[in-house]
Give the backbone structure.
Amino acid sequence: MRTNNKNPEKRSKTVIAGCALIGVLALCGGVILAVWLVISGLEDYRSQARLYQGIQVNTTAPQPYPYSADQQAVIQQRRYPESLTIYFYEEYNENGELQDVRFETWSYYTQGKMISFFNGELDQETDLEIITVQPLPLPYKSEQFQAYMSLEQVLATTGIDKVILTPLEKDLVSGGQVVYARMLSFGLKDGELRYVGTEALEED
Amino acid sequence: MQKRKSSILSLFLLAIFVISLLAEGPASAQTPDKVSRTFDDAVLMMLAAHSRLAEGLPDPGTTSSLPGIMSAGKGSYIFLEVLPQRKTTLQRMNEHRVMAETYTRLGYKDGISIAMQNYCTDQANYHNQQADRIDRHRRNRGVLRRFIRRVGVLIGGVLGTGMDLVAQTAQYYIEEEIPSQVRALVQDMLRSPGQRLQQMIDSRWEQLSQQYWYLPVDQLRYHVDRWFVRIRNGLTGRSNQRAKPTATQAAPKGSDKENKPAETKDVIFSEWNGNWTGDECPEKYESFPFKWGVSLVETADGKVVGTVRFHDCPGGGQAIYKVSGNPDETPGQITLQAEKVDGWGARGDSSPASARFLFILEPPHIQEIK
């Protein structure tokens, strides 16, 4: 017995309702897909490297880091370094207390020396291969950088107005980003300065 | 009925709780004790900074086609000089892999205690795991990903959505190829990440060995080990006991070693210090785009340690081995005892857990010894 098809009007209503349902589902699917695309796209966009130019900072530069006696002696003897690297991190001291560490190395390529300081205390002098080319003067000094500074503070103290900002992958350093500027790169994690490295240039 | 509903709800909540625990398990297991600002993070950022600088090194004077970016003329240094670099000659390093290799090397350091060896092995394993995740993430560059990226760029450009940077007048999306803005010393930079880290460690090690020269060697190890433990993620709280050397490691009474500082140089220059790779893979975005790779370092005791990696590209998976050996009597070749530390895909599955390889320098090639 074919009772379902007896009423053509009812059948057409069923077809219309079915089509409407499919249409609504397709619309919902399309909206969900579009939202997903937008969110994923923006997330991806945010995770990509980017160049910023003409930066104007409203923050004032913090007080410079005071050089230790060891560092002052080295500056007096060798002048300011031709390149430097600074790491900021925490570790436990001998008493089991958590302390901030500023570990920095100053490189003097033309003098063939690399000198490291542990919280300002002279740590080690290492020989480097002497280069004969005179590097360009480094426009940055160690005193400009302090532990856990914000990006804005770094820009204020260095006067940089052009940077490339590269967010790091979550599996690399979660919340980390590396910033490049002229003869400089530095790393921030959760907005705090954790690494500074300058790059010496030689005249072409 | 009400009872049944509440028990279903309880089961549901329990399931969510268990799932959340499982999801957070590995991450929290790796979280260092109370140290949120770890040394490793700072070093990883240094490595990342140099890795991106070295990637896709452009010719000096390359003219950029992107708006607002100036090109560098001869003799001048205008930052951000370049951009679209499609013909990359240098691949991006896997920063975690470098850390893993560093810990592996530390674990082989002469005179290191068993506790420190274990610690270094744990850290190397952790960084290797992270390195694999990074590899997988960086490999994932399919059509869909590119499409999503284009959508993001389009919308981001329209909305002006960018980083929450301080006031800026212009920003440009520069895709993945980071410009190499400094031409000079770039070669140095390419070598420097690993060197800087190693120099830093060596420097600290030597400094401590000089500082504690008057101590018997077992005490020296205790201090140096403690430093390594402290500098690595602040495990001191529980490592003071672990780091103490065992009786079997102490130098015998009256031996030469007893009154001398410990040997601290673990890396020497030799033909076995270096990285070698096989043919290139066709994939453009592979972070390890070679069919095989050998990374070795010779320690002060003449032992050669490192990693060997096989890659059945395209799409055949990889196998990674930790290797060690002594240079053969035949010059220019070495037999390596290998232990698989990681692998995935068909190659990872089919590779034996342990093997022996013969590595020959000229021309560089590696073969398994059956």
Remarks:
- The two ends of chain A are 94 Å apart (CA to CA).
- Chain A has a mean pLDDT of 84.
- The first strand of chain A starts at residue 50 and ends at 53.
